[in-house]
Structure formats: structure tokens, C-alpha cells
Amino acid sequence: MADLDDRTFSQLPRLAEHAPQFTEAQHASQHDVSSRTSPTVSLRRSQRINKGIPPRRLCCCAEIQRKTEPSCWDEMERLPAAAKRKWITAAEEEVVMFEGYMRTR
Q1: Mean pLDDT throughout 95-105?
Q2: Is pLDDT at 60 greater than 70 in this prediction?
Q3: What is the pLDDT of residues 15-27, one digit of tens each?
Q4: How many structural domains comprise the chain?
Q5: Is 93 contained in some domain?
Q6: What is the DSSP string of the chain?
Q7: Domain range spanning residue 83?
Q8: Is residue 68 domain-resident?
Q9: Is residue 32 situated within a structural domain?
Q10: Is residue 97 part of a domain?
Q11: Are 77 and 91 in contact (CB under 8 A)?
Q12: What is the reported pLDDT for 20?
């Protein structure tokens, strides 16, 4: 742009000379929304048969949730000895806490 001088710009055609001229009435009629009727648009419905089901290719990325706490006494008895002692100690502490709570009521 630095190489262009005023003579180069004066040789360019003027945009206003080449632009179509509209009257106010033409302009207003083009943008008159109330006179137009809007076309009825039908709703698009999905035709996919796997809608909501993740693809199998993502199965390898899924994390497997591990059970961290036994849900019954039999499961607790199958735990290793150290984990079993921890679980029984925690259960006893919980019972003592509930007994203390019930006495205060």
C-alpha cells in the first residue's frame, strides 16, 4: 500500500457510482415482514437407530468402577485380614456414635 499514490486511488471506480439506487418505497417493501407469510417448517426427527447409545469403539476408554466397600457381611468376611480389621473397627465406631446420638435425644 505504501507504493500507491493519490493518482492510483483516483483511477479506481467509485463504489457509489456503481451501486444500485433504491427509493425509500422499494427499501421499505423489501423489509416489510408483516406482508410476508412465513413458510411452515416441519420438525426434523432423528432416524438414527443407535440414538443415545455410545459406540463400541469407546468401550476401551471407559473406566471400570471398582467396589470399594462391601455391601453385606459375607463380602466383608472375604476381605483380606487387614482390610477386615479396618472394616470391623469402623463399623464399631459407627455403632458407638449412633448409640451416643440416641442417648442425647
Answers
A1: 89
A2: yes
A3: 556 666 666 665 5
A4: 1
A5: yes
A6: -TT--HHHHHHSPPHHHHSPP--HHHHHHHT--TTSPPPP-PPP----TTTT---GGGGGGSPPPPP-S-SSHHHHHTS-HHHHHHHHHHHHHHHHHHHHHHHH-
A7: 73-104
A8: no
A9: no
A10: yes
A11: no
A12: 64
